[in-house]
Amino acid sequence: MSSQVSTTPPWWAEKIRLLRQSLRLTQTEVAARVGIPRDYLSKLENGRHIPRIDTLEKIFSALGHNMAAAAPWTPSEKAIAWVKRNPWYQKGTDKTFVAFGFHERLIAQGFDPESDEYYQELDRRLEELEND
To answer: How much is the CA Rg of the chain, to the nearest whole Å?
Structure first.
């Protein structure tokens, strides 16, 4: 596994900044709408923090957009429900985007994202990650 850190900002960073700027809102105004600190929003816009999926949903909602529609991939309702029922999500750990990263790999390997086998494999991979 490579120890290099990606310098490419995550997909949400630029989208949040561009939406906010198009609405002529300050970071302070958006942060107040969402209920997060301004410096946290700044870190998200600069790709220096990985937020929980519910935080992204709140930010996009505050900007008048649907997060799933803004994403470069569209998670199904089944995928979102799976993420939200997992203990690591409920505990507040930031593995949500790790799970969605595995999604692309599993699709490339031929898994059907609506099948039980897909979610079993996703659970297995996340469990391996926990135990490393």
So the answer is: 16
